[in-house]
Amino acid sequence: TNDLNESLGSFDEGDLAFLFSAAKIFSPRLSMGTNVKVVRQAFDEFDASGWGLDLGFLYNVTRSIRFGAALQNLGGPGLKFRDTEENWPVEVRGGFAGTILGGRGLVSAEMHHVSGPGVSVRGGTEYWLHPTMTLRFGYDEAPTGGFSFRLAPDAHFDYGMSTHDLGVTHRFGISYS
Known about the structure:
mainly beta, eleven-stranded antiparallel β-sheet, two-stranded antiparallel ribbon
């Protein structure tokens, strides 16, 4: 619309992404994985596509302590609309998780670096109150929280809440494995 709220027409917009993933366990302590991603964006009569690579590993330091790291968007994707090229920023993540209280609790922390904005630190904890219910609390630029309820041995209901500049976000999920 223009300044007088009169229609100037319409346009189409779309995003599409394919991830091809592979992982390998090299030993009882070390596993690695990768994603090759192919993305396409379209806006009105303009479109662009590109690809990128993610790499990650997980190392079991002990039975109760794990360390992991990931490099995301290596080499792109780079998308070029007309004369402007947009490259997805390289992201570096590293963190650890450790079980506590005989396996009923978990404590985790992560450092995340993105080209431009810099480094952020996140952390969280969970505790199984009962074999069917866990509580979670964390920090990701603001307090977060939630719970999980085991519906059956292979099914879970999850709820999470976080706050940000636009308000409170609620997320619900059901998983089956």
